[in-house]
Every structure is written in C-alpha cells, then in structure tokens.
Amino acid sequence: MSIDWENVKTACAKQGRDMRGALLNSTALRRMSSFGRDEDGASGLLSFYTTFMLLVLAGVGIDTMRQEMERTHLQNTLDSAVLAGAGAPSEADAQQIADIVEDYFDKNEMSSYLHELNLEGDNADIQTSLNATKVYAEASVDLDTYLMKLTGVDSLTAAGAAAAEVATPKLEVALVLDVSGSMGGTKLTNLQTAARSFVTTILGQSDPGNSVISVVPFAWNVTPSTELFEALSTTDEHDYATCLRFDDSDFNDTGIDPDTTYQLQEFTSPFDDGFDELDQSWRTCYNDEEAMILPYSISETALHGHINGLSADGNTSAHLGMKWGAALLDDEFQDVVDDLQTAGVVDASLNFLPAQYGEAETLKIIVLMADGRNTSSYYFNANGSYLGPNSDLHKVTWQDMEFDYAWRSKKKGGVKYSNDESKCSNSKWTCVYTAVGDEYSAYYLYDENDDRYLDMEASASALETRSSSSYVWLSDDDFDDLSDLDGSGGGQSFVGSEAVDWEVAWGLMSPDLFRDVTGNYGPWNDFVGSEVDNGTIKDGLMQSICTATKNEGVVVYSIGYDITENGNAETQLENCASSPNHYYPTDGQGISAAFNSIASNVKNLRLTQ
Predict the structure, then answer these.
(1) CB 532 within 8 A of CB 525
(2) Which of 65, 178, 323, 503 has its CA 20 to 30 A from that of 28?
C-alpha cells in the first residue's frame, strides 16, 4: 500500500491559503479596524475584539476538527478501495478493478467524493500487467463551515489520494534434494512428506501456470531426463546413462549452454558387480527413472509422484545438484524448454521459460537440502588408457540359421530339390540354410597375462560369486575359431567380432570385476586414483556455483537435515544460502516445518518483490 502524499499536501496547502485570504478580506475585520480609530470606543473595542477572536478560534477548531474527521474517513475508504482493487483476481481488467473501487465508495455513501478514474493511456490510474496490478485514486469533499462563516470562510475541502500495488511475480523453483545413501529409511520418508507439502503450498498459492517447479535429485551425480539430455549437445560414447562431466570453470557460471558439447560421464560401478548388471549401490550415474530430473512441472500430481519415487543410494555431490538447479533457472535453457515442449514433457502453455535474470515479474528460488558433507567421486583419466577405442572386451555377433532346402545334381542333367532335412546326411545332397531372427551377441574378456578369453555369458553365475574355478575360458585359437562358424547344419552363423570401446565396456562391467578376472590392476588404479573429486574439491565448486547463482538474483534457501552443528556440512550449506536467515538446520521431526517456513517466505517475497 502506498499513498501519494504530495497530492494530499497540495490539497491541504490550498485550504490554508484560502482560509487566510478569507480572514484578511472579511468585512468584520474591516469594521474592527474602523472602530479602533475611534478613541472613545477603545475599551469596547478591546472587549469586542477579544470575544470575536474567541469565536473565531472556536470556529476554526470545530470546523477543522470536522474537516480532519472527514479526511480520515475519506482516506481510510480510499486505502481500502485501492487495496481491494489491486488484489483483484489476475484475470480482472481495468474496468472491473474500477468497479471494485467505486463499489467501496458506494457502500460508504461517498460515491460523489471519488474523482473519475482514468482508465486509458500511459498514466492511467489502473495498470495491470502479467503478475502485478497498480491502482491510484483521488477523492475530495467540500464541507460547509459553522462558526468559520464569521470570518468569510464558507467551506473547507477534505481531500485524499491513495495508491496500491500488489505484485505476484511468476515463480520458478528448483528443489535440489540429497538422495545419497545416508538419506535412506525414515529420513527419505520425512523428506518426501515435506517436499510434497511444499509443492502443494506453492502451487496452491499461484494462478495456474504462474509457478513452475523442477525436482533435481543428486547423489554421486545428477541424471538429466532422457528428453532433457537429448536437447543438449553431448558426446556419444555410450547409451547407458545421461550424466555429464563438467570442467571446474563451468561452476563459475549458472548456465549449461545447449550449444556447447559436454563430455558424457562414463557409466560404471566402482565395486563388485555381476557382468552386464550394473545395479550396485554406488554408480557413477544412476540411470533409473526416479533418479532423473523432473523439469519445469506445473502438475501437483506429477511432482508428488516423482518425489514419492525417490530412492537413496550412493555418495554426495551437492555441487552438481546446485549446478543443475541453477541451469534450470538460467535463460540459456529457453531453447531447451522449447524442445521439451515439443517432446510433450513441459506444458505447452508456458512461455518465455526460464525468464531472463532480473525480470521484475519473475522470482527465482532454489531450495537445497542435504544431510551431510560432500564425499568423493571417481573418474577414469579422460586422456588415459582406459577410455577410448579397443578395450579388452570383445563382442562377437551371430545369427541363427534354419534349414531351407536340399538339392543335388541329376546324372543326366538338371537339379533335384527336396524339403527333407534328413537328406543333409547324404553326401550327394547339398543343404541350404537361411538366417532367421535377430542377431545376438556374446562378450569375451581378454586376459593378456594368459592369452585367453573368458566367456562372460557362460561364466555369468560364477562371476556373481567370483567362483573362478567355474569360469569358462577359451584359448586364443578357440576364440579365433568362432569366426569359422557358418551355420552349416543349422545353429549359429558368425556375423562379426569387435573390441568395443572402453566406455561401452564400463557399462557392462566394473573395474573391480576386470581386476578380479584378469589380475590387471591398471583400470582399477586409474579409476580410483587418477581423477578424484574429494569433499574439499566439491565444497569449493559448490561455493562457486552458489555465488554465481546468488549474483544473478536467485534466492537460495538451504536446509541442513540432521547434520552436525557447526560442522563442515553446515558451514557449506549456510554459506550457500542467500543469508544466514535463509539457512534452516533441522532434524527428522522438523524438516516439514523448515519446508513450510520456506514456502511462507516465498509467498511474502512474491508480495514484496
């Protein structure tokens, strides 16, 4: 609520000037002046003058008190009327808002006091925009005086002016949620309850489409959804998962440029796993649907469903959560949103999303929740021996062959045909087999120490328990003989063999399995020792992206869930927040209260933005 006091002051000054002029020009004063020149009437003059001045003062007091009471009533009505008009539903037009203001005066029997509202032009009294409404109104009333008439002042004017603006900016929210292994059990359940309540509150306080929420789960890494990944430019070494690798310098900027080619994160499990089943607790990228980002949703049902599906596993990388949360709010992603809308992932009614930084009608919020410190993540050396082509894992492809027909040459010329496959046992007949069905493959891991190949499919059960005595090995010669299979007599026909890229190999086996099977520690040592992002490194990158985000005007809230007071995790989360007041330390019982408090603060921010 704001009042145009300059108009009010101008009106009051005019009243004062009119009163003084009337007093100086009054007939009564002229008569007193004439009477005073008569010395014989001196004593009478003093008595008359005193009585007259008392009447004037009493009249001024009574009439100005009436004027002030009327002005106060007028101003209160103005204040209520413009505030009601500014708070009208977002779809109301200028005339409907004017009707609200006029209705307030009508109900107070003051309709004649309200000045006509200007509804046209740049200086219109009522201005509406996408998420804000401004209303200005003036009113005045002329009051007949009582005793001030003795001074020639027949009337006084009570005037007022008021302005109100209610701004409800569009809201873009990124919920950046820790789903690492330590969040399992009741902690995850409590988080899900709190996050669902937050979503309901935010969407419930918004006109449809005015609040957009993204959910960014983070653990070892952050997994963009398939459609989001496809809208970006990335390398394509494998198709197992969609996590990206960022350079340290990328954390100095909020955006992820759709036109920059980002390195695809290799996909593997650091520790023991069965071949072709990378589903261990720790993975460099979680490719499960529930681990993926849900971008730009306005659906309470979809948001609740995604939150309900969250599962806890792996190490902690809050810096990557913040990086993706910031990117989803950065206007560099406008083209990405267009692609997501084409794919049917983002509602087609949403326009200019994400809004440009600094746009007055959009408020951008990140809520970062973590339950502990950042922990180490491992990567293969990007320029090392275990990324790129020609790995030690070989893919051999076959196709099944099926009997088609048999034939033989007649002694006197001509050819005889038969559909009897038993003829194939007769040397006089030649049988023809045709490829049927899809091609299929098997994998063989080369052990350079013993120059042999492990049949991974035949050894699958043994690999699960590392029962090396039951491994099925092929000698180098036996492996070469696989290419001689031609499907004669049915069975398999060799199609081809290749040494797959290391990135493909790491999507099928872990460096731990490779070490156990071959005795070669090279990949394992490279993975755990060459490029390690430990907690200290991640903390630094996290503060870089937090600073970049806050510098763009994004409001960052952080929640420390059941963490050590004054410990490193709390320090990092508090420093990431927009201010100490934007950081919420809480335990399992209080996490809902923390999210509710943030939702309330967001509402207040929207009204004062």
Answers:
(1) no
(2) 65
- The pTM of the full predicted model, rounded to 2 decimals, is 0.73
The answer to whether 518 and 468 are in contact (CB under 8 A) is no
Cα–Cα distance measured from residue 227 to residue 212, given in angstroms and rounded to the nearest whole number: 18
The DSSP 8-state label assigned to residue 265 in this structure reads: P
Q: 322 with 545: CB under 8 angstroms?
A: yes
Q: In the prediction, which pLDDT does 49 show? A: 61
Q: Which pLDDT does position 6 carry in this prediction?
A: 53
Residue 114 phi/psi, 5-degree rounding, is -75, 125
Q: What is the 3-state secondary structure (H, E, C) of 32-89?
A: HHHHHCCHHHHHHHHHHHHHHHHHHHHHHHHHHHHHHHHHHHHHHHHHHHHHHHHCCC
Residue type, 106: D
Q: What confidence score (pLDDT) does residue 22 get?
A: 44
Gap between the Cα atoms of 431 and 420, Å rounded: 10
Structure tokens at 460: 């699958």
**Structure-token match 């994998």, residue found:** 443
317 closest CA partner among 542, 128, 100, 31: 542
Residues 6+ apart with CB under 8 A from 360: 132, 167, 169, 609
Rounded alpha-carbon distances, angstroms, from residue 67 to 8, 22, 147, 156, 163: 13, 17, 13, 7, 22
pLDDT at 32: 46
DSSP assignment of 130-192, as one string? SSEEEEEEEEEEEEE-SGGGGGT--EEEEEEEEEEEEE--EEEEEEEEE-SGGGTTHHHHHHH
User: H helices within 311-360, ranges in order?
Assistant: 318-329, 334-342
- In the predicted model, residues of the chain with pLDDT beneath 70 are 1-60, 90-91, 129-132, 147, 150, 167-168, 272-274, 276-277, 411, 604, 606-609
Q: Which residues contact 351 (CB under 8 A, 6 or more apart)?
A: none
For the residues of 552-588, what is the DSSP string, one character each?
TT-EEEEEEES--TTSHHHHHHHHHSSSGGGEEEE-T
CB 379 within 8 Å of CB 538: no
Burial class (CB in 10 A: 0-12, 13-18, 19+), 359: middle
Cα separation of 413 and 37, whole Å?
163
What is the amino acid identity at position 328?
L
